[in-house]
Write a structure and sequence with these properties.
CATH class of the largest domain: Alpha Beta
Number of helices: 6
Radius of gyration: 20 Å
Number of strands: 17
Shape: elongated
Structural class: alpha+beta
Length: 244
């Protein structure tokens, strides 16, 4: 017998939904364990022996799958867009359309997006509690002085509260009249990098996420995807291991 885990974690690991969505399914009375409707959170199940059903359909554990995608500019990070714009799922084979994306990139940004059927893992990678690093290569207007980089690391005030970069460093390769920076954050608020740089007077011209946790974008071409290596998958699975 395997070690029992929380029911919502079982559902997210089985690719049914994110952990938060799994909790909503439980509260709504749509989940049965061994024939009994469960509506309270916190219950545990043995993944190998429990019969878990959602809306009458049995849920079975599935092999975890992780891929890396290089999202180009001009795509939205969502399953369906009300404005009819292309989405990241248009870049993927149909077999990957059930995967969850980990961390959004806006329409005008590009770079690394992780996708997985491990809803529990996706939750840990995006939750601020775990502080997983995201690294962005950013081309901005003007020459950014050292004092401005220190300000990013100390923290700037945005409309939704203070924001701080873990690291902000200059990098070579910028065009005349611009600066190229590598900015590392430990949270993923909406358009946070763009807003931080706007706040210090250096609007973004180009933004690429080049790393998420242990996974790097590397030479992956825009629009292309790849399976994560076993070492990358192990590193991601180790994030936030607390036995929850």
């Amino acid at each position: 017998m395997t070690e029992p885990i929380r029911l919502q974690r079982f559902l997210s690991q089985a690719g049914v939904a994110s952990r938060r969505r799994a909790e909503e399914l439980i509260r709504a009375g749509r989940v049965r364990v061994d024939g009994v409707v469960v509506t309270e959170l916190g219950g545990r199940v043995d993944p190998e022996t429990a019969r878990v059903e959602v809306d009458g359909r049995r849920v079975r554990p599935v092999a975890r799958r992780w891929i890396a995608l290089h999202k180009p500019v001009g795509y939205v990070t969502t399953r369906k867009d009300p404005e009819g714009r292309p989405t990241i799922y248009d870049l993927l084979p149909s077999e990957f359309h059930g995967l969850f994306y980990v961390g959004r990139l806006d329409y005008n940004s590009e770079g690394l997006v992780l996708l997985t059927n491990d809803g529990d893992g996706a939750h840990r990678l995006t939750h601020p509690r775990y502080g997983v690093e995201r690294v962005y290569e950013v081309d901005v207007e003007g020459q950014v002085p050292a004092a401005a980089l220190r300000r990013l690391e100390t923290g700037v005030m945005l409309e939704d509260g203070p924001a701080r970069a873990e690291r902000a460093i200059r990098r070579p390769g910028a065009e005349p009249g611009t600066s190229r920076l590598h900015v590392t954050l430990r949270e993923g608020r909406k358009r946070e990098v763009r807003r931080m740089l706007q706040a210090i007077g250096h609007p973004v011209r180009r933004l690429v996420r080049i790393q998420y946790g242990a996974v790097k974008l590397g030479a992956l071409a825009p629009g292309a995807w790849r399976h994560l290596t076993s070492n990358e998958t192990l590193a991601l699975s180790a994030v936030g291991r607390d036995g929850a």
